[in-house]
Design goal:
The protein is an alpha/beta fold. It has 17 helices and 15 strands. Strand 7, helix 8 (213-223) and strand 8 (229-234) form a beta-alpha-beta unit. The longest helix is centred in the C-terminal third of the chain and has 22 residues, at 408-429. GO terms for molecular function: pyridoxal phosphate binding; transferase activity. Its cofactor is pyridoxal 5'-phosphate.
Length: 445
C-alpha cells in the first residue's frame, strides 16, 4: 500500500527565481550556486576539460603510453577474439556478474604480484572505500599518511573504527609517535585485542614521492604488539613503472609477506579501468560479504576484463620493461634540465624538486600555477594546474607527468617555455637578472 499526501490548497509555493538566460532556479539550486560562486571567487572552481590530441601529453597518468600502444590494441583484439565472451557482465558479482574468466584473472594477477589472493573492483576508489569501510572493527585504529587519497577518507568516514589519526607525510618519526600514543591510550591494543591499520601510498600522486615503506613496516612491527599492526599500501601510481616487470614498490622491496593488503589499479599505467585488492583468501572472502561497493553494483564488462588481461600479458612477458626504462631516462633528464636553471627570474617563481623523483611525477610549485599552465598549453603542452582543496594551501603547483611516448627534446622544450614564462612574469614583478647570468643562460640555450 502506498501513502500519498494530497496537496494543500493554500500551501506556500517554492520561490523560483528566473535567471538572466530565461531558466528558473530553485531555492536549493540558489544555495548550491553560492557555493560554486565562492569557489570561483577563490579560483578553486573545477570544470571539465577536453584534451587536445595536438598537445604533448605531460598530464595524464598513462605513464607507459599503453593507451596508444599498437601492441596492447593487438593483444586486446586477440584475447577478445579467442575468448568468445559476451559484452555486458550481467549484474553484481554476487548475482550474475561473476565468471570463471574473472576469477582466473584475479588469480593470475595475484600470482604476478606475489600475493596469496585478490579481489577485483570496478575502480580503485571503490576498492579503497569498501575496504576501509568494512575491515577495521570497533576499537581498532586507522593511522594514515596526511596525504592519503580521498577514497581512503571516504572509507574511513563509514568505518566502525572511531580512532582515525593522521601522521605527517612520509615521516617515520611522526608515525612512531602516533603509534606509541595509540599503545599508551588503549588497553585493548596493549593486550592484543584491538588492531591498527596503517594506510600509505607507494607513490603519492601530487608530489611523485615514494613512501619509506621498509622503515614504515619496521617501525610498525617494533612499536605495536605482535599481530596488531597491519600496513595497507595503495600502489595505484607504482603499478607498471616500479618494481620487477612493474610489480610495484612492495615487490621491489621484497615486503610481500609483511604487508596486509595492497591495491593495484588498472586505469593509469595499464590504460584500462578497475582495480584489485591483494590480500589473504580470508580477507577476500570477507570483502565479498561486507564491501558494499562490490556487493551493490554491476561488475565490470567483459571487454574491460579483456583489456586488463591484455595489459598484464604485456607486463608478464617483459614487453613494458623498455617503456619503463625510457620513462626513467626522461625523469633523469627533466630533473637535470630543471635544476640547471639558475636565473632569479625562474628560481623565485618556480620551485622545482630538490631531489630527482623516483616516479614519473614532478611537482612544480609556482606563484601563479594557472597562469603557467595556460601558457604551456598555448605552447602545445598538456599540463594541469593543481590548487586547493586538491592540495594543501600554499602548495599550488603544475603537475608534470612523464610518459614512455615522450621524448628528450620534448622535455627540454617544456623547460625552455617554463623559463620563458617565468621571465615574462618577472618583468611585471620587478625581478631582474644580472647581465652575467643572462649571458650564461643564453649561451647554455
Amino acid at each position: 500500500m502506498t501513502c500519498s499526501v494530497p496537496p494543500t490548497p493554500n500551501s506556500p509555493r517554492h520561490s523560483i527565481e528566473e535567471m538572466e538566460d530565461g531558466t528558473s532556479q530553485l531555492p536549493l539550486e540558489k544555495s548550491l550556486q553560492k557555493l560554486l560562486d565562492r569557489r570561483r571567487a577563490n579560483s578553486t572552481l573545477r570544470s571539465l576539460t577536453i584534451n587536445s590530441s595536438q598537445q604533448v601529453d605531460f598530464s595524464s597518468n598513462d605513464f607507459l603510453s599503453l593507451s596508444k600502444s599498437p601492441a596492447l590494441r593487438a593483444a586486446i583484439l586477440a584475447e577478445q577474439a579467442t575468448s568468445n565472451l559476451p559484452l555486458g557482465s550481467g549484474g553484481s558479482r554476487l548475482l550474475d556478474g561473476n565468471s570463471r574468466y574473472a576469477e582466473d584473472l584475479e588469480q593470475d594477477i595475484a600470482a604476478f604480484h606475489r600475493a596469496p589472493a585478490g579481489l577485483l573492483f570496478n575502480s580503485g576508489f571503490d576498492a579503497n572505500a569498501g575496504f576501509y569501510a568494512c575491515v577495521p572493527q570497533p576499537g581498532d585504529f586507522i593511522v594514515y599518511d596526511e596525504f592519503i587519497h580521498a577514497s581512503v577518507h571516504d572509507g574511513m568516514r563509514l568505518s566502525r573504527a572511531a580512532n582515525r589519526i593522521p601522521f605527517c607525510h612520509n615521516s617515520v618519526e611522526d608515525l612512531q609517535r602516533v603509534l606509541e600514543d595509540c599503545v599508551h591510550s588503549s588497553q585493548t591494543l596493549r593486550e592484543g585485542r584491538s588492531h591498527v591499520l596503517i594506510a600509505v601510498e607507494a607513490v603519492y600522486s601530487m608530489d611523485g614521492d615514494l613512501a619509506p615503506l621498509t622503515a614504515i613496516v619496521d617501525i610498525v612491527e617494533a612499536v605495536l604488539p605482535r599481530g596488531c599492526g597491519y600496513v595497507v599500501v595503495d600502489e595505484a601510481h607504482s603499478t607498471g613503472v616500479i618494481g620487477p616487470n612493474g610489480r610495484g614498490l612492495v615487490c621491489e622491496l621484497g615486503l610481500e609477506k609483511r604487508i596486509f593488503a595492497r591495491l593495484h589499479t588498472f586505469g593509469k599505467a595499464l590504460a584500462g579501468n578497475g582495480a584489485i585488492m591483494l590480500c589473504s583468501p580470508l580477507i577476500r572472502h570477507y570483502l565479498i560479504n561486507y564491501a558494499r561497493p562490490l556487493i551493490y553494483t554491476t561488475f565490470m564488462s567483459y571487454p574491460a576484463l579483456v583489456a586488463i588481461r591484455a595489459s598484464y600479458t604485456l607486463l608478464m612477458n617483459g614487453h613494458t620493461n623498455s617503456l619503463a626504462a625510457h620513462v626513467r631516462l626522461l625523469v633523469d633528464n627533466l630533473f637535470r634540465e630543471l635544476r640547471s636553471v639558475q636565473l632569479p627570474a625562474v628560481t623565485e617563481l618556480l620551485q622545482v624538486p630538490s631531489e630527482c623523483p623516483s616516479s614519473p611525477i614532478f611537482s612544480i610549485q609556482a606563484a601563479e600555477p594557472k597562469s603557467l599552465a595556460r601558457y604551456l598549453q598555448e605552447k602545445g603542452f598538456m599540463v594541469r594546474a593543481v590548487v586547493p582543496p586538491t592540495v594543501p594551501e600554499g602548495t599550488s603547483r603544475v603537475r608534470v607527468c612523464l610518459h614512455a611516448g615522450n621524448t628528450i627534446p620534448e622535455t627540454k622544450a617544456l623547460v625552455v617555455h617554463m623559463k620563458k614564462w617565468a621571465t615574462l612574469q618577472a618583468r611585471g614583478r620587478g625581478i631582474s637578472c644580472t647581465m652575467a647570468e643572462r649571458e650564461t643562460e643564453k649561451a647554455r640555450l
